[in-house]
Design brief:
- By secondary structure, this protein is mainly α.
- It is built from twelve helices and no strands.
- The protein is globular and about 50 Å long.
């Protein structure tokens, strides 16, 4: 299947189909985190991430090979490295955080990433950011505060790890946008899984724990969910632009909360629900702000 596209091409736009595909993609992302939480009972975070990336790489190689070796040449290796490093760091931070705090809290904090994008974009480009974007970010950060201390509990390492994941995710999403200006999606995905696998290899060796036979079904499921999340996003962009389907990134929070409730019987408190509403609402305002400088933020609904 050809994946080398980052836009709608000549296909007539169909926002409904695009939105459904993006929502399905982020359902797969929520499955990745839930499966990682289960797999964490069998082996280490480093091993889980290495297996996930290697499995996705094995799926990508035959797809990318159809375009020939020449199509894999790139003049933007540094940007590919940045995307792989921040994406890998994001997943590691998320997987680590879910061992310490509820799954819903970890994903809600991590997917506050779009709220950080205006600040990062301003720091990188020094271009003015629309006031509506700042207002949306402020609303969202108020929600983050509620999630961090819902009942006056102390800030802990799990919260810090999830917030670090948000910062890494913000840069990873922006780097995808920057790469997408010149690089086909096949190349972006292949380099991501290849470089991420190489980056995770020494970490997995240091953090090595033997993988019991019972863990392999969960690990294969993680790899499949991660690959399909990427595939569905790419297909979605053929039906609608990334900017139009961007708000559907927040469906991952809803899916994760439902999974957390059904599997682990964790029901978020009222203030966490309020925080969730503020983060989603603020993010929607920030993402949908109609201003040219918004594009500098690189807000694109793409899993890391």
């Amino acid at each position: 299947m050809e994946l080398a596209t980052t836009g709608t091409g000549h296909r007539p736009e169909n926002l409904l189909v695009g939105a459904l595909l993006v929502t399905a993609a982020f359902f797969c992302v929520s499955l990745v985190t839930a499966l990682a939480k289960v797999s964490g009972g069998y082996t280490s975070t480093g091993v889980i991430l290495l297996v996930q990336n290697v499995l996705c790489l094995l799926c990508m190689i035959p797809i990318a090979a159809r375009d020939g070796i020449a199509s894999l040449r790139t003049e933007r290796l540094r940007m590919h490295v940045l995307r792989a490093a921040t994406g890998t760091a994001c997943w590691y931070a998320i997987f680590f955080s879910i061992t310490l705090i509820p799954l819903t809290n970890a994903i809600l904090l991590a997917y506050s990433a779009p709220l950080w994008m205006p600040l990062i974009a301003w720091f990188v480009t020094r271009k003015p950011i629309a006031s509506a974007t700042w207002i949306g970010a402020g609303i969202g950060f108020a929600g983050v505060v509620l999630v961090l201390q819902p009942q006056g509990q102390s800030f802990n390492l799990g919260d810090l790890s999830a917030l670090a994941g948000a910062l890494f995710l913000a840069v990873a999403m922006m780097s995808v946008r920057w790469l997408g200006a010149t690089e086909p999606t096949n190349r972006i995905l292949l380099y991501y899984f290849l470089l991420s696998s190489l980056m995770m290899l020494p970490i997995a060796l240091i953090d090595w724990r033997p993988i019991p036979a019972a863990a392999w079904p969960w690990l294969f499921a993680i790899g499949a969910a991660q690959f399909f999340s990427q595939l569905l996003i790419v297909i979605a962009y053929r039906y609608a632009s990334a900017e139009k389907v961007g708000p559907f990134i927040y469906s991952v929070i809803v899916f994760t909360a439902v999974i957390d409730w059904l599997v682990w019987r964790h029901v978020p408190g009222p203030l966490v629900f309020l925080g969730m509403a503020l983060v989603i609402g603020g993010g929607l305002v920030a993402v949908r702000a109609k201003a040219a400088p918004q594009d500098a933020a690189g807000i694109r609904p793409h899993p890391p």
